[in-house]
Backbone:
């Protein structure tokens, strides 16, 4: 962060990083560098769930604008902004509705051929069935999808119970130790497809990967990506002139 702030043509910057970056020495270096180059900053620590998207992805964001006494489209704070309330007008401008949280069903794929490719393998269920984060179409949340999704089971993203209700999952899992992993087949546990992950991340419906990109590469790219809806809102909030 020693070169970019010195490029005089750069008026705006947005930085995104994982939760925890806000406590790091690297963050302190970034802040010092930007302020010395004449930028005013605002930091955020926010999650898509706060605007009704059923996916956890808590991230650190920094907005930087060069100049003295620059105008912002929202009320700045010396502290981390940890919700979207202060951006309510900008949410309206971008037609982002936060009245009620969406269900995962609103983001699910209907391509049966693709879904068949992402069923959780029996060998995975045999070893890791008790650490899976299982959600259903009516769920209002899913775990953050990481680059290790489908390769690792714990902490890399949720799997979907495609058949049955919560009571069915409890019933089936109660029989797991006695009857073996085969009982889980009733639940039709599957991974989210890349298209579904992309939708939760806010990518447009016509987004797709080239046919040469493997399924594993798609998951890795998406896991290293960002939430387009959140970042779009923050960019708009950064460059919009103050109209308060």
Residues:
């Amino acid at each position: 962060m020693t070169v970019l702030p010195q490029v005089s043509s750069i008026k705006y910057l947005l930085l995104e990083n994982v939760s925890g970056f806000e406590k790091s020495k690297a963050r302190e270096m970034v802040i010092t560098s930007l302020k010395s180059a004449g930028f005013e900053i605002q930091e955020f620590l926010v999650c898509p769930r706060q605007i009704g998207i059923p996916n956890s992805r808590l991230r650190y964001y920094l907005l930087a604008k060069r100049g003295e006494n620059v105008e912002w489209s929202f009320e700045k704070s010396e502290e981390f902004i940890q919700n979207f309330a202060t951006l309510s007008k900008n949410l309206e401008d971008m037609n982002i509705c936060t009245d009620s949280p969406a269900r995962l069903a609103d983001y699910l794929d209907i391509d049966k051929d693709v879904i068949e490719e992402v069923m959780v393998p029996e060998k995975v269920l045999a070893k890791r069935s008790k650490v899976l984060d299982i959600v259903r179409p009516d769920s209002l949340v899913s775990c953050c999808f990481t680059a290790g999704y489908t390769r690792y089971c714990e902490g890399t993203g949720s799997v979907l119970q495609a058949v049955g209700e919560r009571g069915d999952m409890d019933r089936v899992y109660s029989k797991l130790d006695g009857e073996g992993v085969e009982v889980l087949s009733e639940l039709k546990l599957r991974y989210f497809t890349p298209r579904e992950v992309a939708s939760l991340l806010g990518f447009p419906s016509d987004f797709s990967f080239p046919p040469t990109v493997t399924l594993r590469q798609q998951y890795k790219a998406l896991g290293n990506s960002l939430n387009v809806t959140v970042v779009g809102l923050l960019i708009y909030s950064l460059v919009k002139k103050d109209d308060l």
